[in-house]
Design brief:
mainly alpha, two-stranded antiparallel sheet, 71% helix, 3% strand
């Protein structure tokens, strides 16, 4: 195996890992804020990808331009999820919380299969096509732009959480919601904002990855499992830990190159 192939596998894995890291950051934000694991996170990613597809199919919007709309749609979906489900199970036992979000994932996937069938959906002739050749490595332009967009979104998320008043209120609620309420920070509102931001991250990732990846009900599980693995790299519930989790995609890319695509 040549050096070029090894570098190709590493670069490809890191680019995909940046996308998974942004997804994991949203998952980690929700968990750190409320101690609830969103088992429907992968299905929300599927919804963002379908949203991007239908915006292209019905209105001719390329995925690169429909990202802001996808973010707003997913943020609104996060607020609805909190107010119609999560707020009622906050004080419930962990098993009930797991069953509730897992049931939500089954519900979303079933609705998607009913409305749009299990068929894969692709976008024809997106604006970003082609590849770049650098020192014997071939890097797809859509994959490169997608990873850079997710990296920028990740940095903006970090700055929002650490530098803004709302972000500091989110951190205070995550550390001690009762003390935060005494100081006048409404925890219920913070939870809703946390869900909006968490699914907004999914909106960015799903919208941008839609440029080169198919949308379907079966891609939700793999994305959720990988984002959970990335989330386990989150130290002290810090979002930079999720970024470090992007390395989990390097072995995946290595296996697909050195052995077979089936092992990835």
């Amino acid at each position: 195996m040549t050096t070029e192939i090894i570098l190709q596998a590493v670069v490809t894995g890191l680019m995909m890992g940046l996308i998974y890291a942004l997804i994991a950051a949203g998952l980690s934000l929700i968990f750190g804020l409320m101690d609830i694991v969103n088992f429907a996170h992968g299905e929300h990613l599927m919804l963002s990808m379908f949203s991007s597809f239908w915006l292209w199919s019905l209105f001719g919007l390329d995925p690169i331009f429909s990202i802001p709309i996808t973010i707003l749609l997913m943020a609104f979906c996060g607020v609805l999820t909190h107010y119609f489900l999560i707020r009622y199970i906050l004080k419930a036992k962990m098993l009930i919380q797991i069953c509730a979000t897992f049931g939500l994932s089954i519900f979303i996937r079933s609705i998607a299969q009913f409305l749009w069938t299990p068929d894969f959906r692709n976008i024809d002739k997106p604006l970003l096509e082609g590849r770049l050749e650098i020192s014997g490595m071939f890097i797809g332009q859509p994959q490169l732009i997608a990873s850079l967009v997710c990296l920028v979104a990740f940095i903006l998320l970090y700055l929002f959480v650490t530098k803004t008043e709302t972000g500091l209120a989110l951190q205070a609620t995550a550390q001690d919601r009762h003390a935060a309420e005494i100081l006048g920070i409404p925890s219920d509102k913070m939870f809703a904002i946390g869900w909006a931001i968490g699914l907004g991250c999914v909106g960015v990732a799903g919208g941008i990855v839609r440029i080169y990846f198919w949308a379907g009900d079966k891609n939700s599980r793999n994305s959720h499992e990988t984002s959970l693995i990335s989330k386990t790299r989150t130290y002290n519930r810090h979002c930079w830990g999720a970024l470090a989790g992007c390395v989990v995609c390097v072995p995946q890319s290595w296996l697909s190159v050195s052995v077979s695509d089936g092992y990835s």
